[in-house]
From TrEMBL:
<comment type="similarity">
    <text>Belongs to the RNA 3'-terminal cyclase family. Type 2 subfamily.</text>
</comment>
<dbReference type="InterPro" id="IPR000228">
    <property type="entry name" value="RNA3'_term_phos_cyc"/>
</dbReference>
<dbReference type="GO" id="GO:0000479">
    <property type="term" value="P:endonucleolytic cleavage of tricistronic rRNA transcript (SSU-rRNA, 5.8S rRNA, LSU-rRNA)"/>
</dbReference>
<dbReference type="Pfam" id="PF01137">
    <property type="entry name" value="RTC"/>
</dbReference>
<dbReference type="InterPro" id="IPR023797">
    <property type="entry name" value="RNA3'_phos_cyclase_dom"/>
</dbReference>
<dbReference type="InterPro" id="IPR037136">
    <property type="entry name" value="RNA3'_phos_cyclase_dom_sf"/>
</dbReference>
<dbReference type="InterPro" id="IPR013792">
    <property type="entry name" value="RNA3'P_cycl/enolpyr_Trfase_a/b"/>
</dbReference>
<dbReference type="InterPro" id="IPR013791">
    <property type="entry name" value="RNA3'-term_phos_cycl_insert"/>
</dbReference>
<protein>
    <recommendedName>
        <fullName>RNA 3'-terminal phosphate cyclase-like protein</fullName>
    </recommendedName>
</protein>
<dbReference type="InterPro" id="IPR036553">
    <property type="entry name" value="RPTC_insert"/>
</dbReference>
<dbReference type="GO" id="GO:0005730">
    <property type="term" value="C:nucleolus"/>
</dbReference>
<dbReference type="InterPro" id="IPR020719">
    <property type="entry name" value="RNA3'_term_phos_cycl-like_CS"/>
</dbReference>
<feature type="domain" description="RNA 3'-terminal phosphate cyclase">
    <location>
        <begin position="9"/>
        <end position="335"/>
    </location>
</feature>
<keyword id="KW-0539">Nucleus</keyword>
<dbReference type="Pfam" id="PF05189">
    <property type="entry name" value="RTC_insert"/>
</dbReference>
<dbReference type="InterPro" id="IPR016443">
    <property type="entry name" value="RNA3'_term_phos_cyc_type_2"/>
</dbReference>
<dbReference type="GO" id="GO:0004521">
    <property type="term" value="F:RNA endonuclease activity"/>
</dbReference>
């Protein structure tokens, strides 16, 4: 059988989620091989297979072929179905790992999305449910996706036992708006949530005290909230974390998080999160490092107009994502310094011409 014309080929297990998302949005087949082929335990991990199963449930007509050894996959994308579904996430990765690709796909589904995911809500590798709710979803609102966009944290679940549950709801749109976001503004308020599950509830207050000891020097409008979950809602394992976000006058949001570690005092966790937030603010831009890929993807899918956004320097993940966008959508970005007259300026303005992506799935209904 002749190879289909629109097949994109990659090697290695890195950036798997973004490549699967781009494949489903662009309708191009993707083949990924040499997945940990040199490893003692080669092939896909349980969380990657779980993600493929979730994408299969979330779409209609998607065919996923996995080689016998699990070191190669071929994805033939179908249409994004959406609707109501439940998924049990393995405890090897947090819910954020599975929810991030869904957030990119959900606005372009056939039916409004209502997904319930169960597993770990907070770990050190992925976005926690709280960051997804307070930072990731407001970034979608920049592109005109707002009515009915919601993430509910029903139960917390710390690693390793999990037991958390979140519900994600997203409306569908015909097309996303073009963004022009180049004024980062000044920080006007700082918000945060400290949560402690199955440990002494005083831990939340200790993290908040430590965080305030630094933040009070800068700005008066600080509200750090202590979130206590009791009984069944607190999952199966003990743990605590502090999530902080700073919002600017132009609604740019920077976030940071620190999670409980064995043998580390809650005060140190509070200080770690606070310093991470100040580092993120220092890097500047209108979008923080963690959300570069989401914003760039929505810019590419925007209406046929030039979208611009000011961000910090691209991370390695973002650089690879830009290359992958060129492979799938044949769109390149123009990246220039935000302030050409200042040689010290590390911020960049990313601009691209949107592809005018229209949600064809909803018109098939």
């Amino acid at each position: 059988m002749a190879q289909p014309v629109s097949l994109v080929h990659f090697s290695g297990h890195n950036h798997l989620r973004n490549r699967l998302v781009l494949s489903i949005l662009s309708g191009k087949y993707v083949r990924i091989d040499k997945i940990r082929s040199e490893d003692k335990n080669p092939g896909l991990r349980d969380y990657e297979i779980s993600l493929l199963r979730l994408l299969e449930k979330f779409t209609n007509g998607t065919v996923i072929e996995i080689s016998v050894t699990g070191t190669a996959i071929l994805l033939k994308p179908g249409i994004i179905l959406g609707g109501t579904l439940q998924h049990e996430c393995p405890t090897s990765r947090a819910i954020g790992y599975f929810l991030e690709p869904l957030i990119m796909l959900a606005p372009f589904a056939k039916k409004p999305v209502n997904v319930t995911l169960k597993g770990i809500t907070t770990d050190e590798h992925d976005f926690s449910a709280y960051i997804l709710r307070t930072v990731t979803l407001p970034h979608l609102q920049l592109f005109g996706i707002s009515q009915g966009l919601e993430l509910r944290i029903k139960k917390r679940g710390a690693a390793p036992g999990g037991g958390g549950e979140v519900q994600f709801m997203c409306p569908i749109v015909k097309q996303v708006k073009t963004i022009n976001f180049i004024d980062p503004g000044k920080i006007k308020r700082i918000r945060g949530v400290a949560h402690a599950v199955r440990v002494n509830p005083q831990f939340s207050n200790r993290m908040i005290e430590a965080s305030r000891s630094i933040l009070n020097r800068y700005i008066p409008d600080i509200y750090l909230y202590s979130d206590v979950y009791k009984g069944d809602e607190s999952g199966k394992s003990p743990g605590y974390a502090l999530t902080l976000l700073a919002e600017s006058t132009t609604s740019a949001i920077y976030c940071s998080e620190a999670i409980s570690e064995a043998g580390v005092a809650p005060e140190d966790i509070g200080l770690k999160a606070t310093r991470a937030l100040l580092t993120e603010i220092e890097k500047g831009g209108c979008v923080d490092e963690k959300h570069q890929t989401l914003v760039l993807l929505m810019m590419v899918l925007g209406s046929e107009d030039v979208g611009r956004c000011r961000m910090g320097e691209p991370t390695n993940k973002t650089i690879q994502f830009l290359r992958d966008i060129r492979s799938f959508f044949a769109t390149s970005f123009k990246i220039v310094s935000a302030d050409p007259s200042d040689p010290e300026c590390s911020q960049l303005v990313y601009s691209c011409y949107g592809t005018g992506y229209v949600n064809a799935n909803r018109t098939l209904a």
